[in-house]
Design brief:
heterodimer; A: mainly alpha; Rhopdopsin 7-helix transmembrane proteins; globular; B: alpha+beta; Arc Repressor Mutant, subunit A; three-stranded antiparallel sheet; 4 helices; 3 strands
């Protein structure tokens, strides 16, 4: 049996493995950045942490929708579709948090008055995520989610490279800007595989792999910059 | 025109003023911090709450402010936090 057939036959298992891998990475990032936030009370770190908290929830929901739903026959269909609706909602929201972590300084003057989870600006993202997730659900598609994330990461890539260039950083194309650009590539590839290649199985598996690489790189960067002594 | 200091920079400046075992009067720290009295009070309250500085009183009830071990550790970690914020564009 060649590698392609092996991958195709074990597609669902690979999906579960990649999902659990990402959930663990998100958990580690949340723990590391939360300690840094407690130390500094920096709002940017808080929004960054929230992004991975929401990514973690999203992938837990995907795990539940994919794996646990098989044990819930005859409610499998309903449970699975609710999980996937919530997965979409949380993943869009996580993208917004990551995006807003780059922009919050321009909008928040007295940051200590803000809750990072519930404030007027974040409420706009909640509403937008809800609308996108509901429309996708009603139209039985993922197109709006993909498009929203492509736009979001395209702008985020531009902002990071522009800011790095503005600050005249020696390596203005650092690993983080590379990971954000990789996210843009991943969402674009996901969209193309879904709608131009009719969910090509190998393409979907490649996306799982790319997703794992992206989250691993996120963790790598966070780990590298949080190698500090903690005290609580 | 000089750039407005970031919140973390203000905290670093306040802690640096009381570092090295110095215990100084609040008014002197206010001048050293270069903040408005209200903002200074907010920052000092926050730093006391975080356990980075402490208020001492002598026999005549004169107040002085000194840095705690946690504050010293924060100063040591400041560069790491700053690097994190810069690296992730936060």
């Amino acid at each position: 049996m060649d590698i392609y057939n092996f991958l195709l036959l074990n597609r669902e298992i690979l999906k579960i493995i990649s999902t659990l891998f990402i959930v663990i990475i998100c958990l580690l990032i949340v723990v590391r950045t939360n300690k840094l936030f407690k130390l500094s009370s920096h709002s940017g770190i808080r929004y960054f942490r929230n992004a991975f908290f929401f990514y973690g929830i999203a992938f837990i929901l995907r795990y539940l929708g994919t794996f646990l739903s098989t044990f819930l026959f005859p409610y499998r269909e309903i449970f699975s579709s609710i999980c996937l609706l919530l997965f979409e909602y949380f993943i869009i929201m996580a993208g917004f948090f990551l995006f807003y972590s780059l922009l919050w300084k321009r909008f928040e003057i007295n940051t200590r008055d803000y809750s990072s989870l519930f404030n007027p600006r974040i409420a706009i993202f909640y509403v937008m995520s809800f609308i996108i997730a509901i429309l996708d659900y009603l139209w039985s598609t993922y197109a709006l989610m993909y498009l929203s994330q492509i736009i979001l990461f395209a702008i985020a890539t531009f902002i990071i490279i522009f800011n790095n260039n503005l600050q005249k950083k020696e390596n203005f194309l650092n690993i983080y800007s590379f990971v954000i650009a990789l996210n843009l590539i991943m969402w674009t590839a996901n969209f193309l595989i879904a709608y131009s290649f009719n969910w090509n199985h190998l393409g979907v598996i490649a996306i799982y792999g790319l997703n794992m690489i992206i989250f691993f790189l996120f963790l790598f960067e966070v780990w590298r910059f949080t190698e500090i002594r903690q005290y609580d | 025109m000089t750039k407005k200091r970031e919140r973390l920079e203000v905290i670093r400046d306040i802690l640096s003023s009381v570092s090295g075992g110095k215990s100084i009067k609040p008014t002197r720290l206010l001048y050293a911090s270069n903040l408005s009295p209200q903002m200074f009070k907010d920052y000092v309250d926050e730093l006391i709450g975080k356990g980075f500085i402490k208020v001492n009183k002598d026999e005549q009830e004169h107040k002085t402010i000194s840095i705690t071990n946690k504050g010293i550790e924060f100063l040591q970690q400041y560069r790491a936090i700053e690097k994190f914020v810069v690296n992730f564009g936060l």
